[in-house]
Design a protein that fits this description.
The protein is α+β, with helices and mostly antiparallel strands. It has helices at residues 4-18, 63-75, 97-102, 105-109, 129-134, 153-167, 171-183, 192-197, 238-241, 247-258, 271-278, 349-361, 369-392; strands spanning 22-29, 32-43, 48-49, 56-57, 205-207, 216-218, 244-245, 262-263, 266-267, 282-283, 298-300, 305-309, 312-321, 324-331, 336-342, 410-414, 418-425, 428-433, 436-444, 447-450, 461-466, 472-477, 488-492. β11 (298-300) and β12 (305-309) form a beta hairpin. The longest helix has 24 residues, at 369-392. The mean pLDDT is 95.
Length: 495
């Protein structure tokens, strides 16, 4: 039995052990809001406390809005879940022609196109939303079509473009008109400038170093150069992860989903299509985390993960973006919805809190979820050196580069990932990619390792290649962050 006072005390007591600024928690059961509170600090520097009206970024929880928007277009006869997307967007291409001719909205929303994430190109990159969708044609597949599940943000962005094409509105305008306004989600927005200037906006924080388990510092918002709130232009990746919201607003979103598309007395999306986006579509072949205790299966629906927990269907989705983490959780058969929001990067307090609330509602007390997730994080950190060695191999001692270091400098380009700059400065090499990078230290032979621990590609090894002319003419790097596909090759310009 859920005891709110006990829950409140547990959340407050655990927050210092997680060593993060804040967590905001909302619980709705049987249509009644049982909790909507903030714990800790939304802004550490000013000492401003978090509450249920604090604005947080929710990252990939945004995908549930994109899936619901697609469902609404299916209701209106403008879209078919299983009709190839190329029939709606004739310019859309994948690298594999078979995928181009057959990939549907359902395929793209349940992550089964065969594409790995391929995220690095858009993080701080000079991309547009349409450009992201067009870039699908340049992405190396990792698996055959519909054979493998792999999380894929660009496909969600492409579905956002499809929604724009069919509705005649921007994705942001469509979401606001069709969902935010009728649900009264008046605090929800899409723009970094909005949260940064909001008097109740949370500020983002991260660990002092990515490998630390304690200590945190303020970090920057992820903001695209393309975003322009005054002009109504959202982040290019918006349909995959740009929504910002509050516990109060997200409780309305969960109530809408628990009611299968109905809010108040209005059926906004048909019950049939809401069930379609909540039902299992693709079994996960690579879980995001180790399988949880009490879980029988783990799958993806459309914009939601679906799994069993102690024999109950659980529908949930997390979100992470610079300095923020979020989780939406629903257990439909007991009419329970939980939202947990934090202003801390890659937090699993969101999961620990939600799982504990679910177990309390189910009268289960055999798992300490806070300890479970802290132990899981510690194990992941402990395994990283071995994982990096497996990725890079061991350096061969006593080797030297085949060319003077200045010969490696230049601009290298790749169809999917764009330009990468290698410069020779102060007697050494430095890498710059989408405003990110660091010094390159010699690994062995013509291989160099990125030595900036805060770089997105920290510890990755860059392999330079020599052409027939004897000049350095290309480099390769595992920039796709997936061992299933070959390293991406960047060709040196003007070589």
């Amino acid at each position: 039995m859920l005891n709110i006072e006990k829950t409140r005390k547990s959340i407050a007591d655990e927050l210092p052990l997680w060593d993060q600024p804040s967590i905001a928690v909302g619980i709705v059961k049987d249509g009644q809001i049982l909790m909507n509170e903030g714990f800790g600090l939304a802004d550490v520097e000013t000492g401003r406390a978090a509450d249920s009206d604090t604005l947080y970024q929710i990252g990939s929880c945004s995908k549930s809005f994109t899936a619901a928007a697609a469902a609404l277009l299916v209701d209106r006869g403008l879209l078919d879940w299983d009709r190839p997307v190329v029939e709606y967007l004739p310019w859309l291409r994948f690298k594999d022609d078979f995928v181009t001719m057959n990939a549907t909205t359902r395929d793209m929303l349940c992550h089964r196109t065969g594409l790995p994430r391929h995220d690095v190109y858009w993080i701080n990159g000079p991309v547009t939303r349409r450009g992201m969708a067009e870039n699908l044609r340049n992405m190396q597949p990792g698996w055959s079509f519909r054979s493998h599940w792999c999380y894929q943000n660009t496909c969600y962005t492409a579905v956002g473009v499809l929604i724009e094409e069919l509705s005649g509105m921007t994705w942001e305008e469509f979401i606001a008109k069709e969902f935010l306004e009728p649900l009264g989600m008046n605090r929800t927005t899409f723009y970094v400038d909005a949260i940064d200037s909001d008097p109740k906006g949370a500020k983002p924080y991260e660990r002092d170093l990515p490998t630390d388990l304690h200590g945190y510092q303020r970090c920057a918002f992820l903001k695209s150069d393309r975003e322009d709130m005054a002009a109504g232009i959202g982040a290019p990746y918006g349909p995959a992860g740009s929504v910002m919201s509050t516990v109060d607003d997200m409780l309305k979103w969960l109530q809408f989903n628990l009611a299968d598309g109905k809010y108040g007395d209005k059926q906004i999306v048909s019950e049939a299509n809401m069930k379609e986006i909540h039902k299992p579509q693709m079994l996960l072949s690579e879980p995001l985390l180790a399988p949880f205790p009490h879980q029988d299966f783990f799958s993806y629906a459309m914009g939601w993960f679906t799994e069993t927990h102690r024999g109950h269907l659980m529908v949930e989705h997390g979100g992470n973006i610079n300095g923020f983490s979020a989780l939406m959780t629903m257990v439909p058969d007991i009419n329970l919805g939980i939202v947990t929001l934090t202003n801390f990067n890659d937090s699993f307090d969101t999961y620990a809190t939600a799982f504990q609330i679910v177990d309390d509602c189910l009268d289960a007390d055999d798992t300490n979820w806070n300890q479970y997730f802290r132990d899981l994080i510690a194990a992941v950190m402990e395994s990283q050196p071995a994982q990096k060695e497996a990725m890079n191999g061991k350096p061969v001692e006593g080797t030297a580069p085949s060319h003077p270091l200045e010969d490696y400098a230049g601009t290298y380009t790749n169809a999917c990932y764009g330009d990468m700059e290698i410069s020779f400065r102060d007697g050494g090499l430095e890498l710059l990619y989408n405003k990110d990078g660091g010094k390159l230290t010699h690994f062995h032979y013509d291989a160099f390792q990125i030595s900036n621990p805060r770089a997105l590609l920290s510890d990755f090894v860059v392999y330079f290649r020599t052409g027939k002319s004897g000049k350095v003419d290309s480099l390769s790097i595992g920039i796709a962050l997936n061992p299933e596909i070959p390293d991406e090759v960047f060709t040196k310009k003007d070589c």
